[in-house]
Write a sequence for this structure.
């Protein structure tokens, strides 16, 4: 019947329109959250910055030469604004950062730099396998230092308004390093100004780099004694304990209370975790040592579980990413001769797109759970609201965003 067909088409069109409006609303909310004030006129801003650099004691010739003909770099702003279309899953991150080639190379370098690493470990108390793991993740063992002019990128980001204060401090620190003779004015680095074998940002360089070989200069590129000593000093000052490891893969008992998961949650002595049924991944007892640990499920309750110790916090001081910190620990274990994780990766894993995450956030808000805005990015508030919603409908409350979660959200009404 033609009228019905026509009605069908109309309904479909209306449905599509409603969907489009939904996404337009969601996206405009996401964009609104990120409106950034226009930067001040560049010449006046630069003159004022030069004054501040001079009055903070940076040599006049460095201020003059480093900032000569300087202009914001458009590419740096593009890199700063880029938003990945898909969120990275734990397994994808792990396979991106740890592979057989990297493990093999890392083991070779552990031997090659063995005597130096041992000397540095005796002084700073950071085990060589961890140093080499950081080296591998930061620059693929010194293969990629970054080629973007550090002064140019930091001027760009300090002049821009998104994180002006942070990058102005980085720029002044970088000029200070140049003034002190540690770093040349034309040095290259990452788009955000990270430098050398361990990708130190300028304030970390200023505060934690050390002159390992005693030649009067802190060279984090060409001098491995300086580079290893500096990375060890930074970790040591961040609370590293050289008699301990980072954590380990563990196994949780059936029906384990997922409220106990999370770095921010209660840390407990290993003895208590043992009593709650937590075991090493191979089923053996947890180590009988008087230390505390926290539990993490980076891929949700169907993925691997990790018990992490105090050194994990030191890794998180270096880089505030749980994936990064687990990858450092796991790579260090692999360099030490240990095998891969005992929990197998899923046969098929569907990464969430930004639109998927926006839909998750909008749906949670509609259901009365506060996500801290709709920005298409998974933050602590979104995780907490996922956890609360999961608990409210009787699902395992791991706070983990996934395609399964999105499907449940679409299908499962609130209790
Ligand atoms: Ca030196």
């Amino acid at each position: 019947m033609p009228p019905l067909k026509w009605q069908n088409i109309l309904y479909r069109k209306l449905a599509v329109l409603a969907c489009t409006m939904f996404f337009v609303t969601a996206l405009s909310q996401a964009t609104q959250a990120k409106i950034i004030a226009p930067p001040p006129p560049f010449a006046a801003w630069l003159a004022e910055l030069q004054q501040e650099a001079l009055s903070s004691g940076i040599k006049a010739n460095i201020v003059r030469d480093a900032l000569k003909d300087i202009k914001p770099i458009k590419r740096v702003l593009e890199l700063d604004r880029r938003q990945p279309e898909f969120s990275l899953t734990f397994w994808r991150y792990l396979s991106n950062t740890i592979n057989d080639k990297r493990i093999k190379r890392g083991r070779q370098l552990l031997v090659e730099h063995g005597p130096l690493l041992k000397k540095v470990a005796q002084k700073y108390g950071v085990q060589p396998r961890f140093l080499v793991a950081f080296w591998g993740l930061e620059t693929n063992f010194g293969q990629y230092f970054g080629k973007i002019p550090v002064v140019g990128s930091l001027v760009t980001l300090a002049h821009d308004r998104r994180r002006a204060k942070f990058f102005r401090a980085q720029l002044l620190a970088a000029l200070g390093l140049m003034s002190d003779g540690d770093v040349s004015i034309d040095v290259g680095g990452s788009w955000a100004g990270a430098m050398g074998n361990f990708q130190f940002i300028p304030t970390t360089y200023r505060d934690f780099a050390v002159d390992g070989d005693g030649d009067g200069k802190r060279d984090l590129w060409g001098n491995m004694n300086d580079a290893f000593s500096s990375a060890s000093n930074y970790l040591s000052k961040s609370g590293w304990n050289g008699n301990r490891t980072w954590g380990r893969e563990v196994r949780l008992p059936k029906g384990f209370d997922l409220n106990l998961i999370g770095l921010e949650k209660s840390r407990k002595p290993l003895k208590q975790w043992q009593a709650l049924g937590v075991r090493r991944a191979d089923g053996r007892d947890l180590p009988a040592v008087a230390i505390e640990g926290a539990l993490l499920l980076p891929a949700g309750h169907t993925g691997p579980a990790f018990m992490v110790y105090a050194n994990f916090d030191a890794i998180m001081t270096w880089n505030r990413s749980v994936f990064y910190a687990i990858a450092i620990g796991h790579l260090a274990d692999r360099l030490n001769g240990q095998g891969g994780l005992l929990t197998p990766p899923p046969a098929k894993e569907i990464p969430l797109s930004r639109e998927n995450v926006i839909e998750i956030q909008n749906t949670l808000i509609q259901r009365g759970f506060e996500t801290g805005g709709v920005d298409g990015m998974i933050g602590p508030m979104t995780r907490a609201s996922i956890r609360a919603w999961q608990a409210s409908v009787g699902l395992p409350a791991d706070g983990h965003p996934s395609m399964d979660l999105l499907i449940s959200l679409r299908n499962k009404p609130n209790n």
